[in-house]
From TrEMBL:
Taxonomy, superkingdom: Bacteria
UniProt keyword list: ATP-binding, Calcium, Calcium transport, Cell membrane, Ion transport, Magnesium, Membrane, Metal-binding, Nucleotide-binding, Phosphoprotein, Translocase, Transmembrane, Transmembrane helix, Transport
Upper lineage: Bacteria, Bacillati, Bacillota, Bacilli, Bacillales
This protein's record includes keyword Nucleotide-binding: yes
Protein name from the UniProt record: P-type Ca(2+) transporter
């Protein structure tokens, strides 16, 4: 086969070439695009359409970073001193422990890094491309020169394109030129006046990678990709998920600094007291250093990062992609979720079921996007082509339409043993328009995929749909050369622009009674939860091509209405119920008709306690204060425009709410940015909204938001769990040493033991707490206050009291053993060491519950069980292995010792546990659920 040459010389002046020459140079097709196989060949040859990504942190640096901490520095100093004093064994052991700790930290961080990287990859943009004459949505990284790409408002231009068609196309190129006023683009070739290069901003028939489409639509061929693009040349980095530190991480770092000071002071006291009571200075120095190490919760920031990263991964598994790490914390605080209706609360699978014109209602059968069905009049099938007005309506539905139907032949699963091909129809484009295409196919009988068999008119212009006008029009040239405007849109918006009506096939002036009749009919259909669209047209006399500015959507001739169902998603009702229990308010925001919105809201159980409905035009009349006051009670905002969303977010925020807000269109971006948690749709969302969002829903599903909130709460709870565990352990360790020195006892723990407990035995269980499953009442609680301190709700008290008990019991076990045989200090120290370890390993189970250890099944978190078992095995090794005994200054323990250890170690947790049981009954939801209760 002959090698196809593609002209991709980077300095080609594409803007001077005529469209046909560009197509030839790129060996492509301006209508069908490349073939799939050719595109793949080019991809293999040229490489992915990516900018050289920001460099990953090399693993070796991650490893080195582990040894840069303050604590590690202290330990190195301690090692050096031990070495110079001739305590080689101590020196080597400290080094070994630093090393083990470093490796553990490294593994954690590398893991966190990996999952955050995966997150960046998920956030990568998509492109609409034509291949083999079919429209596909593919990752922008797979584009190659020659690909035919479609653009619309809200897109980031995915590669450098030479435009072939530009319909009111406006592109904001500040990413490239710094100029923030959008440039309006054209499709024609620019004549090269001189040899000088035209500046980028004036290359009006090129669209550049990374710039943003702010309006209109267009098509073009990819001329360069990846680093060959204009933006690649300036090697600008874009579109990466932000991986910033969360507020909690920042606060923990600050707390760490305070603890360093506390640790140093305590150390000085302990050293002073020890020396005063006659301990050797070097021993006290090492003990002091170990204590300082104990007091600084070194592992904390790392474990927080890991817990966040793992939580983020769990969210991905539940289809929620976090773009900004801090929002993971905010998610748990969400008190209002404002959701779009179409596609988020509903399935976005629209089917036209009713048509109305001239006082006649037809029913349309068939389901989904399958283009087969019949038209029924009073239950009897009719031939639609007999009814002129119906045909006119269907033709508007079919032509004033940008959706495409495509059919995948899907081989039935081998597993089922059936070789039969199953046809599955899909819509590429707006589902509302898809439904109308299907309707037209049912009534007009053409092949919906290829369009064969339909009457051809040539589209010469388009006024694209926008959520403010709530309608869309096209201009067509008919075969006789005359022009016609075809319009469809929200029924009452369209009606207000009509002056005539087609009634029983006759065009006549639209009387006030007829208007009322139509509006009544609209509401009647809307009450059945149908989305109602109206259809109209007008002949354009004296229109000439290219007069787009002169077309007005007024004086139209009304034809009829179509009502389509869009069933609610099944998961939504239980999800709303869960929000209710969790004290989270749910609000529907929709461009749809008030009555349709209300009917859907009732179906999904949204109107509960605060069942008011507000329309966009009413909202316009309210001041911000009035809106804030009303917002508490409104459950549904209907017929709103994207601009209203921003006011709604602000109103709720001024009432102290933490607001999650969804959006998909370009105009939703400001509201999404302002919301505490901005949520973009993964499927229908534009690039611009995704970039503004904190969270992207892979499945556009409301239930996914609730799942993310649940995970958000769980992550925060888990962070509290291991903070509690680690800090209580540290408090215990410090108090043992502190009291022993103050009371003039011998050292209860030798330095190496303190280091071991801190750096080795604590780490694994703390990690396991980071992945603890949620407590049963996580979604029964009210959202936590955004400004809440991490130690709030009794956590601080629990840390101090349990830490105190652990320290006290360890000291007691030590004292009892030592008093019995004051000559065998090593034995007493071993008992203290093991008691401390066991007390912590028991206490770790207490940390899993806000209530008490008895509230949860101890075997539920299998990572924790393994972590605890391995910590026990490690400590047994340290105690019983002959080789390790001299290093860790331990000796064999006997049955009596173990009895003492178990009792002493168990008391802190069980005393506390009993307290918890006595204080608290069963958990209850924040709001009582109405599901399953009998109405009286
Ligand atoms: N492609 C379209 N052409 C003409 N009119 C449309 C089109 N899509 C929607 N409409 C009309 O405009 C109204 C508002 O649509 P809009 O897109 O603002 O809301 P929505 O996205 O459908 O609802 P939601 O805000 O719940 O997602 C719809 O109720 C419908 O009547
Ligand atoms: Ca919308």
């Amino acid at each position: 086969m002959e090698e196809i040459q593609v002209d991709t010389r980077p300095n080609q002046k594409w803007y001077t070439l005529a469209a046909a020459d560009v197509t030839r140079a790129l060996n492509s097709d301006a209508r069908e695009g490349l073939s799939q196989s050719e595109a793949e060949r080019r991809l293999a040859k040229i490489g992915a359409n990516q900018l050289a990504a920001n460099k990953r942190k090399p693993l070796f640096t991650v490893l080195l970073d582990q040894f840069k901490d303050f604590m590690v520095l202290i330990l190195f100093v301690a090692t050096l001193i031990s070495y110079f004093l001739g305590e080689y064994l101590d020196a080597i052991t400290i080094i070994a422990i630093i090393f083990i700790n470093g490796v553990l930290g490294f593994i954690q961080e590398a893991k966190a890094e990996r999952s955050l990287q995966a997150l960046k990859d998920l956030a990568s943009p998509m492109a609409r491309v034509m291949r083999d004459g079919q429209l596909f949505l593919i990752p922008a990284s797979r584009l190659v020169p020659g690909d035919l790409v479609l653009l619309e408002a809200g897109d980031r231009v995915p590669a450098d394109l030479r435009l072939f068609s530009a319909n009111r196309l406006e592109i904001e190129e500040s990413a490239l030129t710094g100029e923030s006023v959008p440039v309006s683009k054209t499709a024609g070739a620019l004549s090269a006046v001189s040899d000088d290069a035209v500046p980028l901003g004036d290359q009006k028939n090129l669209a550049f990678m990374g710039t943003m489409v702010t309006g209109g639509t267009g098509q073009g061929l990819v001329v360069s990709t990846g680093m060959d693009t204009e933006i690649g040349k300036i090697a600008h980095m874009m579109n990466q998920a932000e991986i910033a530190e969360t507020p909690l991480q920042i606060r923990l770092e600050q707390m760490g600094k305070i603890l360093v000071v506390v640790a140093v002071l305590l150390t000085l006291v302990v050293i002073g007291a020890g020396v005063w009571h006659g301990h050797e200075l070097f021993t006290m120095f090492l003990a002091g250093v170990s204590l300082a190490v104990a007091a600084i919760p070194e592992g904390l920031p790392a474990i927080v990062t890991v817990a966040l990263a793992l939580g983020v991964q769990r969210m991905i598994r539940r289809n929620a992609i976090v773009r900004k790490l801090p929002s993971v914390e905010t998610l748990g605080c969400a008190s209002v979720i404002c959701s779009d209706k179409t596609g988020t609360l509903t399935q976005n699978k629209m089917t036209v079921t009713h048509i109305w014109h001239s006082n006649t209602t037809y029913q349309v059968t068939g389901s989904g996007y399958e283009p087969h069905g019949a038209f029924l009049l009073q239950g009897k099938q009719i031939a639609p082509d007999r009814d002129q007005a119906l045909v006119q309506l269907l033709q508007i539905a079919q032509r004033c339409n940008n959706a495409q139907l495509s059919c995948e032949e899907e081989k039935a699963r081998r597993l089922l043993g059936m070789g039969k091909a199953v046809k599955r129809w899909q819509v590429v484009g707006d589902p509302t328009e898809g439904a109308l295409k299907v309707l037209a196919a049912k009534g007009l009988g053409f092949d919906p995929e290829t369009g064969k068999g339909r009457q051809e008119g040539v589209r010469v212009d388009e006024l694209p749909f926008d959520s403010d006008r709530k309608m869309m029009s096209v201009v067509e040239q008919k075969s006789d050369g005359s022009y016609v405007l075809l319009t469809k849109g929200a029924a009452e918006a369209l009606l207000s622009r009509c002056s005539h009506i087609m009634w029983n096939g006759q065009v006549q002036p639209l009387s006030a009674t007829m208007r009322h009749r139509i509006l009544d009919q609209t509401e009647e259909m809307a009450a059945q939860a149908l989305r109602v669209l109206g259809f109209a047209y007008k002949p354009l006399q004296g229109y000439r091509r290219g007069q787009s500015a002169e077309i007005k959507e007024s004086d139209l001739i009304f034809v009829g209405l179509a009502g389509m169902i869009d069933p609610p998603r099944e998961e939504v009702r239980p999800a709303i119920n869960l929000c209710h229990q969790a004290g989270i308010k749910t609000v529907m925001i929709t461009g749809d008709h008030r009555i349709t919105a209300e009917a859907i809201a009732r179906q999904i159980g949204l109107m509960r306690g605060y069942g008011e409905i507000m329309e966009g035009r009413e909202l316009d009349r309210l001041t911000d204060e009035e809106l804030a006051e009303r917002a508490e009670r409104v459950a549904v905002y209907a017929r709103v425009s994207p601009e209203h969303k921003l006011r709604i977010v602000r109103a709720l925020q001024s009432n102290g709410h933490v607001v999650a807000m969804t959006g998909d269109g370009v105009n939703d971006a400001p509201a999404i940015k302002t919301a505490d948690i901005g949520i973009a749709m993964g499927i229908t969302g534009t690039d611009v909204t995704k970039e503004a969002a904190d969270l992207v829903l892979r499945d556009d599903n409301f239930a996914t938001i609730v799942a993310a909130v649940e995970e958000g709460r769980n992550i925060y709870d888990n962070i509290r769990k291991f903070i509690r565990y680690l800090l209580a352990s540290n408090v215990g360790e410090i108090l043992v040493m502190f009291f022993a020195m103050i009371l003039g006892m011998p050292l209860p723990l030798v330095p190496i033991q303190i280091l071991w407990v801190n750096l080795v035995t604590d780490g694994l269980p703390a990690m396991a707490l980071g992945v603890d499953p949620p407590e049963a009442d996580t979604m029964y609680q009210r959202p936590r206050n955004k400004h809440e301190n991490i130690f709030a709700r009794g956590l601080g008290w629990k840390i101090v009291s349990r830490g105190f008990l652990i320290g006290l019991m360890t000291l007691l076990a030590f004292w009892l053993t030592w008093r019995e045989n004051p000559d065998d200090l090593v034995h007493a120290q071993t008992v203290a060491f093991v008691t401390l370890v066991m007390a912590q390993l028991i206490h770790v189970f207490d940390c899993r519950s806000q209530h008490s250890v008895f509230h949860r099944n101890i075997f539920e978190n299998k990572y924790l069980v393994w972590a605890v078992l391995s910590s026990i095995v490690l400590v047994l090794g340290v105690v019983y292995l002959d080789a390790l005994q001299p290093i860790f200054k331990t000796t064999d323990l006997y049955f009596r010792d173990w009895a003492l250890i178990i009792v002493a170690a168990g008391i802190p947790t069980f005393v506390a546990g009993m307290g918890g049981v006595l204080r608290r009954g069963r958990p209850r939801p924040a709001n009582k659920s109405t599901a399953g209760t009998v109405r009286s």
